[in-house]
């Protein structure tokens, strides 16, 4: 008897080892293949795909306990439930249940506790309930619930606390709430909630604190606020809130402190307040607020002192001022303020001292002056455009006056008299008052004694002197020499300094200091130690449709990069004809020709 028992034990153990040491993938394409499925498979299940036009039930799969690969149940037009999988406890790979137009519920998956990868529920036209997924606590990759025509809620994910990948909830036309996600605390990737036509709130997301990717809330037709996100404090990627036509305010985002990428709030026609962003202190990307027809101000952004990329405030029909930006001192890209017909004041930018790119004030019908731009360091402006502001007559603020008298990279047109041209602005009484020094020229050239840097002033007011600074990269400057100023003078005066130790390419700027220690910077010039044998010229700048390149040596490679560093055109030799720029988006571009780099504005 003992011998027989030993043989039986050995047989069972060997059968178990055989099942564990092999894995078989199954593709079941008919009801017959499901009915014939072995009750106790010889091998572990690898991947399991179920897809067949005549499949009505999965009852023949009741012996399956675990799947070591993926589970794909898709394109089964007659399948109404998955009851045959009632023994399934674990799927190590992804789960996809999609394009099953008769599937009403996920009944049968009540024992499923582990999903090793992603879950996708999509294009199930009759799906009304996902409550069978109530044992899932973690999804190690992504969760997508999309295009389920009659799904009313997400009840079934009540135990789900973490999704390590992205979460997308989109195009579910009857989804009225996110109930079922009450336990969700962390999304490891992106969270996208979009195109859910009857979704009214996010009230079931109260446990969510962190999103490690981007947050997109868009095209939700009846969404009125963000209530339900009250514990969300950090979004490591961009935040995009756009095309929610009934969104009135951002209440619910009161705990948000950081946007790791861009913050874009656009095309929300009913939006009247963004005050709930009051704790936001950091925007590591672009700030874009545009086409919000009812938004009167930017109150709520007062806690931000630095925006690490560009700022675009555009086409907000009711926007009257920029006071919500009163704490901003630094913008790491261009500034575009345009097509805001009710905008009367830029005073909210009064603390702004530095930008990095072009400054464009365009098509603001009610704007009469540029007060608020006074404190921008004019050397941080790469290109200035003030255009088509019908009532703008006073442009003589310090930063603008300094830029117009020390540089040539500007375009003024279509404004009211007084701000219609460089001559009008520079000669205005406000500019004469704002400028301590009338800098006529600032040039440099290479010579046998080094680089000769010279400048001339037509007048000086309370001028203590000029500190000449040099740099090898146009970013980090060192002090070179201080030349005493004339104090108060109305005569032309020449200054000259020889730099005996220049770099191969040396960048220079002047730091002019008043007697009261106020500081003004000049534009930056560059001098090449070894002058190029064949000069290169690019014009016009800004370019409108065509860009001409003149060079004696046409065998020079060239490339054009946009403001994001992406190459949009390149070739091994210069073109014989003018470059066609009509297909390029408007903005700043860097054009490299041989070893020279030019900054060009495209304004089609």
From TrEMBL:
Localization per Swiss-Prot or TrEMBL: Secreted, Cell wall
Major location category of this protein: secreted
Cellular component GO terms held in the UniProt record: cell envelope
Signal peptide extent: 1-19
Source species, domain of life: Bacteria
Location of the Secretion system C-terminal sorting domain: 538-596
Keyword set includes Glycoprotein: yes
Key words of the record: Cell wall, Glycoprotein, Secreted, Signal
PANTHER family reported in the protein's UniProt record: RECEPTOR PROTEIN-TYROSINE KINASE, SPORULATION-SPECIFIC PROTEIN-RELATED
NCBIfam families per record: Por_Secre_tail
Protein's name according to its UniProt entry: T9SS type A sorting domain-containing protein
Source organism: Dyadobacter flavalbus
Source lineage: Bacteria, Pseudomonadati, Bacteroidota, Cytophagia, Cytophagales
């Amino acid at each position: 008897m003992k011998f027989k028992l030993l043989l039986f034990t050995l047989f069972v153990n060997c059968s178990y080892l055989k099942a564990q040491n092999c894995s078989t993938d199954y593709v079941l394409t008919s009801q017959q293949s499901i009915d014939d499925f072995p009750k106790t498979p010889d091998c572990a299940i690898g991947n399991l795909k179920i897809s067949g036009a005549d499949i009505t039930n999965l009852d023949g799969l009741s012996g399956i306990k675990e799947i070591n690969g993926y589970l794909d149940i898709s394109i089964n037009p007659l399948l109404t439930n998955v009851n045959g999988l009632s023994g399934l406890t674990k799927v190590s790979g992804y789960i996809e249940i999609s394009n099953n137009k008769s599937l009403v519920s996920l009944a049968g998956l009540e024992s499923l506790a582990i999903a090793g990868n992603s879950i996708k529920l999509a294009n199930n036209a009759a799906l009304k309930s996902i409550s069978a997924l109530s044992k899932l606590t973690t999804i190690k990759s992504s969760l997508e619930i999309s295009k389920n025509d009659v799904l009313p809620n997400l009840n079934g994910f009540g135990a789900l606390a973490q999704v390590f990948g992205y979460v997308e909830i989109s195009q579910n036309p009857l989804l009225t709430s996110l109930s079922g996600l009450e336990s969700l605390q962390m999304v490891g990737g992106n969270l996208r909630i979009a195109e859910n036509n009857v979704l009214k709130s996010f009230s079931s997301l109260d446990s969510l604190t962190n999103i490690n990717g981007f947050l997109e809330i868009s095209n939700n037709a009846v969404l009125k606020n963000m209530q339900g996100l009250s514990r969300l404090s950090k979004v490591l990627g961009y935040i995009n809130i756009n095309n929610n036509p009934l969104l009135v305010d951002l209440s619910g985002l009161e705990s948000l402190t950081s946007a790791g990428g861009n913050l874009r709030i656009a095309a929300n026609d009913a939006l009247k307040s963004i005050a709930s962003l009051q704790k936001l202190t950091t925007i590591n990307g672009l700030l874009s607020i545009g086409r919000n027809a009812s938004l009167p101000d930017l109150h709520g952004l007062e806690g931000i002192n630095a925006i690490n990329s560009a700022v675009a405030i555009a086409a907000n029909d009711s926007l009257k001022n920029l006071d919500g930006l009163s704490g901003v001192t630094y913008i790491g890209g261009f500034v575009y303020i345009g097509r805001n017909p009710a905008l009367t004041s830029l005073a909210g930018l009064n603390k702004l001292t530095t930008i990095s790119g072009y400054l464009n004030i365009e098509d603001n019908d009610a704007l009469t002056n540029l007060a608020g731009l006074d404190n921008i360091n004019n050397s941080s402006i790469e290109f200035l455009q003030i255009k088509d502001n019908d009532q703008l007559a006073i442009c003589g603020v310090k930063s603008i006056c300094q830029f117009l008298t020390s540089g040539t990279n500007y375009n003024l047109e279509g404004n009211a008299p007084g701000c219609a041209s460089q001559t009008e602005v520079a000669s205005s009484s406000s500019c004469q008052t704002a400028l301590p020094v009338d800098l006529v020229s600032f040039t440099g050239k290479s010579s046998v004694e080094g680089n000769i840097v010279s400048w001339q002033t037509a007048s000086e007011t309370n001028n203590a002197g000029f500190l000449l600074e040099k740099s090898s990269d146009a970013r980090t400057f060192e002090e070179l020499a201080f030349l005493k100023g004339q104090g108060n003078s109305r005569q032309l005066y020449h200054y000259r300094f020889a730099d005996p130790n220049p770099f191969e390419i040396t960048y220079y700027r002047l730091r002019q200091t008043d007697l009261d220690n106020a500081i003004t910077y000049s534009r930056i010039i560059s001098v090449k130690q070894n002058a190029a044998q064949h000069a290169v010229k690019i014009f016009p700048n800004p370019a409108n449709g065509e860009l001409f390149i003149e060079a004696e040596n046409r065998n020079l490679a060239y490339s054009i990069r946009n403001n994001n560093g992406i190459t949009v055109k390149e070739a091994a030799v210069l073109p014989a004809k003018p470059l066609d720029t009509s297909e390029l988006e408007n903005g700043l571009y860097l054009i490299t020709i041989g070893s020279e780099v030019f900054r060009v504005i495209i304004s089609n």
